[in-house]
Amino acid sequence: MTIQVHDKRFEPYIAETELQQRIRELAYELSHDLEGKKPLFIAILNGSFMFAADIFKYLTIEAEISFIKLASYKGTKSTGNVITAIGLEEDLFGRTVVILEDIVDTGKTLSQFLPQLQHQQPRQLLVAALLHKPDATTHPVQIDYLGFSVPNKFLLGYGLDYDGLGRNLPEIYQLSE
Ligand SMILES: O=P(O)(O)OC[C@H]1O[C@H](OP(=O)(O)OP(=O)(O)O)[C@H](O)[C@@H]1O
Ligand SMILES: Nc1nc2[nH]cnc2c(=O)[nH]1
C-alpha cells in the first residue's frame, strides 16, 4: 500500500520481516567475527537509531555502543567541508570499532569521517551499513557488513526521513515514480 508523506507518495520496498531477518544475520556474523574483542559500536545519528538498536539487541557478545552526531562546516579551500563528531568521548586507541550507518549514498559522509577516526589509531575500524546505493556512490567506502544493496532512489522509513517525517515506519519505502 502506498503512503503519503508531505507532498510525496512512497511505495513499500523492504518489508519489516525481511529487514529484521537480514539484521539478525548481520548481528550473527558480527558476533562470530568479533567475539572476545569487546567491540565499540558507534552509531551515527539521526538516521541510524533504529538499525543500531536492532542490531545491538541481536548481538550475543560483550560489546559497547555510543551515539554521535556529525556536524559539517566549511573548512579552508584545501580541506573543503570538514566533518566533526559531537558526543564521541571514548578513546578509540587499540579498540575494535564498528561504525553503524543506516545508508551509504554518495559515500561523502563516511569517506570524510573515517580518516578522522583512523587518527585515533583503533586496532580495527569496520563499517556496518544497512543500505548502500552503489550507483550513487561517488566517494567509495569499504563496507564490511552490508544489509542491502539498493537502487538509486530516495528511501524512507526505519530511521530514514523525508523532511523530518517517516523515521518511525518499521519498513522501508521508496519514492513512487
Ligand atoms: O553517503 P552520503 O551521501 O554522505 O549519505 C549518507 C548520510 O546521509 C544520511 O544522513 P543525513 O545527512 O540524511 O542525516 P540524518 O541521519 O540526521 O537524517 C545517512 O544517515 C548518512 O549519514
Ligand atoms: N531519507 C533518506 N535519507 C538519505 N540520505 C542519504 N540517502 C538517503 C535516502 O535515500 N533517503
From TrEMBL:
Q: Which UniProt keywords apply?
A: Cytoplasm, Glycosyltransferase, Magnesium, Metal-binding, Nucleotide-binding, Purine salvage, Transferase
Under Gene Ontology molecular function, one entry of this record is: guanine phosphoribosyltransferase activity
User: What Pfam families does the entry give?
Assistant: Pribosyltran
Q: What is this protein called?
A: Hypoxanthine phosphoribosyltransferase
Subcellular location, record wording = Cytoplasm
Major localization listed first in the record, in broad terms: cytoplasm
Which GO BP terms sit in this record? GMP salvage; guanine salvage; hypoxanthine metabolic process; IMP salvage; purine ribonucleoside salvage
Which pathway, per its entry? Purine metabolism; IMP biosynthesis via salvage pathway; IMP from hypoxanthine: step 1/1
The reaction(s) annotated as catalysed by this protein in its Swiss-Prot or TrEMBL entry are: GMP + diphosphate = guanine + 5-phospho-alpha-D-ribose 1-diphosphate; IMP + diphosphate = hypoxanthine + 5-phospho-alpha-D-ribose 1-diphosphate
What the entry lists under SUPFAM superfamilies is as follows: PRTase-like
Extract the InterPro entries matched here: HGPRT (IPR050408), Hxn_phspho_trans (IPR005904), PRTase-like (IPR029057), PRTase_dom (IPR000836)
- State the signal peptide span: none
What is the E.C. number?
2.4.2.8
Stated family: Belongs to the purine/pyrimidine phosphoribosyltransferase family.
Kindly list the organism's lineage.
Bacteria, Pseudomonadati, Bacteroidota, Chitinophagia, Chitinophagales
Task: Name the enzyme group at the top EC level.
Answer: transferase
The Phosphoribosyltransferase domain is annotated at 19-162
Which Gene Ontology terms of cellular component type are present?
cytosol
Output the PANTHER family linked to this UniProt entry: HYPOXANTHINE PHOSPHORIBOSYLTRANSFERASE, HYPOXANTHINE-GUANINE PHOSPHORIBOSYLTRANSFERASE
Provide the cofactor list for this protein.
Mg(2+)
